[in-house]
Structures are given as structure tokens and as C-alpha cells.
Design brief:
Largest sheet: 6 strands, mixed
Number of helices: 11
Number of domains: 2
CATH class of the largest domain: Alpha Beta
Distance between the termini: 112 Å
CATH topology of the largest domain: Major capsid protein gp5 fold
Shape: elongated
Radius of gyration: 41 Å
Strand order of the largest sheet: 5-12-9-6-8-7
Number of strands: 12
CATH superfamily of the largest domain: Major capsid protein gp5
Oligomer: single chain
Length: 407
């Protein structure tokens, strides 16, 4: 009996020693993790400032990693030894799955049966994908995160590309426009006086206008996600150019708005209705109106809805007039390039000669980032500003014929 008591005492002492060793090893791993975090932060700073991690930092991280591996292995060994001896169950008072099985009513019923079969142990805890509660293992599930940003569809910007480019160093552009011409040229008899012609000019001033907007972001997110900074730049620039196109095309000239092409264009005077008159006919007559003003148009701008209607025209046999469905069709109408853009309202059209207008850049579109706005410096916020200044000169309003299709 004394031997059994001594044996139980020896095993109890071993369990105490093992638990003390587990506690020591766990604390060592926690210390190692803190040191690794410290050196990882240092490595990140070196990589940012020097472009590489120093050999000393690498060596320290390798040593800590090896030390942690050895400690973890020792911890696993001690825990396995305790498990083998049943110490963990004895220390915590928990019952093993086998103990739960043989003590269950299902097993007792099963054991009293003479036929073979199987037994299912019903337990109260069920492992689920929940992140809280008994049996919740949802924190172990890592989402499959896609790193890219899904941008919305953007409009193709084309109007400015059709006009003459230019630049200015002033806040206004002045140009001379011919507003009247009386042509007195005629055959002249020998010794007779030459007939006179009259030219009338006006000086026109177009002021430089500014377009801009701003996006707010935290310094941390821009530093931690360079892709986001690039995305903001791209989206901000598109937003600026979208308004620029609308201003060049449809600005009403009031306040800070440009005096756009449609506001200065010559109104279409041809027939819009009649037997057999189609949108194709209207465009051809607008081209004629431009040519009679001695200008050669090079584009027609249409809303996608109107261009689709033209492409869907069929003959009496149901054959498409415009395109071969297998190869598509070139976007040319009456020898003019078709600009399909939602900047033109459905039901309207613009026939134009790009040489009749010019865009002057005073300050080209640029991105500026600053903390000097409100309390941004204190809050670690930055203002991302996209800004430009430009002027539009429409030299020949008759170079642009604007009208509406009949309803």
C-alpha cells in the first residue's frame, strides 16, 4: 500500500513539473513572437527607406524562427507525454471521447444487444461556421479575397480629340473672327477700275475656365495600398475629363462654364420630315449645309441609340443596309467618321469640321496631394485634388451643324 502511495506521489510530482515546463515554454514562445514582431517592423522600415533588409535583421529573424521551432517541438513533446499518462484529463476533470462513449445510454443499450451494428454518440456541441458560441470555428475560414478593384463602366471620351490642340500662358484668349464678306471680284476691262470687296472682323475673347474636384483619403491607406492611390488618380482624372467633354460640347457660357460648341453651332436648316426622309438623309443634308459654307466636315457625332437605329435599317427584303452581321461595319456615314458618344443627347446630331475650333490648355490636368486643408494634418488625412484650366475658341460656327431628328 505504501508503494502505491509513493507511486501516486511520484506521478503527481511529475505532472506538476510537466505543467510548470509547459507554462515556461508557452511564455518563451510569447516572448519569441514579440521579438519577431519587433524585428519584422524594423525590416519593413529598412525595406521602405533603404530598398532592402539588412543582413543583421535577416540573421536575427532566422535565429528567432529556429528558436521558436525548437521551443514548439519541446512543448509538443511535453504535452504528448502528459496526454499519454492521462494527466491532462485528470488535471482538468474532462472526460475523453472514449469515456463519454462507454458511459452513454446509447452504448449501454448497444452493449446489451446480441446483434452487431454501430453506435452514434450524440453530443451537445456541434462544430459550425459561426464565429461565436460553442463549436464555432468560423474564424478558421479565410475569405478568398480578390485584390483588384472592380471599376464601373466608363464613357469613351472623343470630342476633344477632334479639335485643334493649343496652349496659352494667359487667363484669356483673343482672336479675330471674320463676320462679314462682300465679294466684289469681277472681270475687269482694260483701263477700268477694279471693284471693291468688303471684309468685316470682330475681336472675340474667350476666358480660361477651371475644372476641378477633390478626393479625401487617409495617409495610412495610401501608404499601405499603393494600388488604391493609383486607382484614385485614374478615377479622379476620368471624372475631370468627363466634365471637360461635356463643357466643350454643351457648356452654356454662363458663370464658370465654357461656351461650348453646341451653344455656338449653326442650326440645321434642312428638311427633317417628308416621305422617305430618314436620319441618314438628315445627316447628308447637314453635310451639304456645311459644304455650302465652304467648309469640309470630318465627323458626325451621334448618340449610341441613334447610331444603332441607323445600323438597323433594312431594305424591302429584310436585309441590313449598313452592315454585314458576320464582319460588322466600319463606323463611317457619308464618308464621315461616326463618333458614337452619350455626350450627344439621343435624337440630336452634330456634323462638324474639327478645324473650326481649338482648345487651349492653361494648366493641363494634374494631381496634387496635400494635408493643408481644414484639420487634415491633425487627422492624418490627405486631399487629392485634380485640376485643370482651359479655354475654347470656336472660330467658325458654320463649321458645326447642330440639329434634332424629327420625332
Amino acid at each position: 500500500m505504501n508503494m502505491h502511495i509513493a507511486e501516486r506521489g511520484r506521478k503527481a510530482a511529475e505532472r506538476v513539473d510537466a505543467h510548470a515546463e509547459i507554462k515556461s515554454l508557452t511564455e518563451a514562445l510569447a516572448t519569441r513572437d514579440a521579438e519577431i514582431k519587433q524585428f519584422a517592423t524594423k525590416a519593413g522600415e529598412e525595406l521602405k527607406n533603404l530598398g532592402q533588409v539588412s543582413s543583421e535583421t535577416k540573421a536575427a529573424l532566422d535565429a528567432l524562427s529556429q528558436k521558436g521551432t525548437d521551443t514548439a517541438a519541446r512543448l509538443a513533446e511535453v504535452e504528448q507525454r502528459l496526454a499519454t499518462r492521462g494527466a491532462i484529463g485528470a488535471a482538468t476533470g474532462q472526460k475523453s471521447a472514449g469515456q463519454l462513449m462507454i458511459e452513454s445510454e446509447q452504448y449501454k443499450s448497444f452493449a446489451s444487444r446480441s446483434d452487431a451494428g454501430k453506435i452514434t454518440l450524440s453530443t451537445k456541441a456541434t462544430i459550425t461556421s459561426a464565429t461565436t458560441g460553442t463549436g464555432g470555428a468560423g474564424d478558421l475560414i479565410v475569405p478568398d479575397r480578390r485584390p483588384e478593384i472592380l471599376a464601373p463602366a466608363v464613357r469613351s471620351l472623343t470630342i476633344r480629340q477632334l479639335l485643334l490642340p493649343g496652349s496659352t500662358s494667359s487667363n484669356a484668349v483673343e482672336y479675330v473672327k471674320e463676320t462679314g464678306f462682300t465679294n466684289g471680284a469681277a472681270p475687269v476691262a482694260e483701263g477700268a477700275a477694279v471693284a471693291a470687296s468688303d471684309l468685316t472682323f470682330d475681336v472675340v475673347t474667350t476666358n480660361v475656365k477651371a475644372i476641378g474636384h477633390m478626393v479625401t483619403a487617409s495617409r495610412q491607406i495610401l501608404n499601405d495600398a499603393p494600388m488604391l492611390a493609383s486607382y484614385i488618380d485614374t478615377r479622379a482624372n476620368f471624372g475631370l475629363k468627363l466634365v471637360e467633354e461635356n463643357q466643350i460640347l454643351a457648356g452654356d457660357g454662363t458663370g464658370q462654364n465654357l461656351n461650348g460648341i453646341l451653344n455656338q453651332a449653326t442650326a440645321y436648316t434642312g428638311a427633317q420630315v417628308g416621305t422617305g426622309v430618314t436620319k441618314v438623309d438628315v445627316i447628308r443634308k447637314a453635310i451639304l449645309q456645311c459644304r455650302l459654307a465652304e467648309l469640309v466636315p470630318n465627323f458626325v457625332a451621334l448618340n449610341p441609340t441613334d447610331w444603332a437605329e441607323i445600323e438597323l435599317l433594312k431594305d424591302a427584303n429584310g436585309q441590313y443596309l449598313w452592315v454585314n452581321l458576320q464582319t460588322g461595319g466600319t463606323m463611317i456615314l457619308w464618308r464621315l467618321n461616326v463618333i458614337e458618344t452619350s455626350a450627344v443627347t439621343a435624337g440630336e446630331f452634330l456634323v462638324g469640321a474639327g478645324t473650326g475650333a481649338q482648345v487651349f490648355d492653361r494648366e493641363q490636368a494634374s494631381i496634387e496631394i496635400s494635408t493643408e486643408h481644414s484639420d487634415y494634418f491633425a487627422k492624418n488625412l490627405v486631399a487629392i485634388k485634380n485640376y485643370e484650366r482651359l479655354a475654347l475658341a470656336v472660330y467658325r460656327p458654320e463649321a458645326f451643324i447642330y440639329g434634332e431628328f424629327a420625332a
